[in-house]
Amino acid sequence: MISKEEISEILKGYDKKNITIATICSHSSLQIFHGARREGFKTLGICIGQPPRFYDAFPLAKPDKFICVESYKALLDYADDLVADSAIVIPHGSLVEYLGIERFESLAVPTFGNRRVLAWESDREMEREWMLKAGVNVPMRFEKADDIDRPVIVKYHGAKGGRGFFIAKTKEELQSKMSSQEKYTIQEFILGTRYYIHFFYSPIKPDGYRLSKGSLEMLGIDRRVESNADEIFRIGSMKELADAGIYPSFVVTGNLPLVLRESLLPRAFELGERVVETSLDLFGGMIGAFSLETIVTDELEFKVFEISARIVAGTNLYINGSPYSDFVEPGLSNGRRIAQEIKRANELDLLEEIVT
Predict the structure, then answer these.
(1) pTM of the model
(2) Which domains does the chain have, with CATH numbers?
(3) 42-56: per-residue pLDDT in tens?
(4) Binding-site sequence positions
(5) For the stretch 283-321, what's the b/e string if a residue is b when 16 or more beta carbons lie within 10 angstroms of its beta carbon?
């Protein structure tokens, strides 16, 4: 991993009056570019081959310029070009998936947030350790198929957008579906409503919902639309579907907006607070946008089953604000909030606090 000292040296050569916001042309890039432009930044899109034509349809979110690479894995070869533009890279799910954690960690370009968080996020053993140390309620985990005594969901490691996840009701069903070629986690299947809560942690903001350092904001909530899983039971019972060889698929295809019962908001903030404070102890803090992926049971208990330690695609619902971010600032998106954090840090000469 590139050291913080090396990034600090690179930052010293930046034109602080002409910082450029850069990201890969995928995932949440439209709102990142749109938000950066609203805060007065230049923008740069990273793409494979020719610039994607769909940006022409969205002029307010089209990057000012593009860097076209042969493959995302070759992005490391373009670090000098990004540095020449005084670029700060915004990581998102596609960047992590396409570039890979090791290459991303060695990218010699200042990056928003703490790169160390991605190792904790992508490894389910480390992620579970994080959540348990934070004292949040997590689903029960099973080490092997013989231990199963209830329905479970199996998740393969890494950012896969739900691909490869499956449900099994018995150990026999689990063994028939399991791939031994990949690392996996077996969790109990929790019945309840899924809430993906979008938080933003600022280590430099002095007011708001205060933590031991900085403050925490809630900017929105979504629920994922997952391929056929949300509609599959319209055509038959689980047994009928299994007999026909049809099984739920959890590949994410879109997102739906949600709000919580207001009485649950204090508990939601407590979850976010615990996770951030623990991240400060474990690896120096999770900076910027993150999401807690939760299930709320019929007893109104939160179960946290995953952390996404970066901007998530569900925030694309709220380009012009959400029912929560509007109480922070009207029309505030996650993309714009990231740009505001960079702008404030730059003005206060605190960029080293929020980039690695």
Answers:
(1) 0.89
(2) 1-111 (3.40.50.20), 141-191+225-254 (3.30.1490.20)
(3) 999 999 999 999 999
(4) 27, 94, 226, 255
(5) bebbbbbbbbbbbbeeeeebbbbbbbbbbbbbbbbbbeb
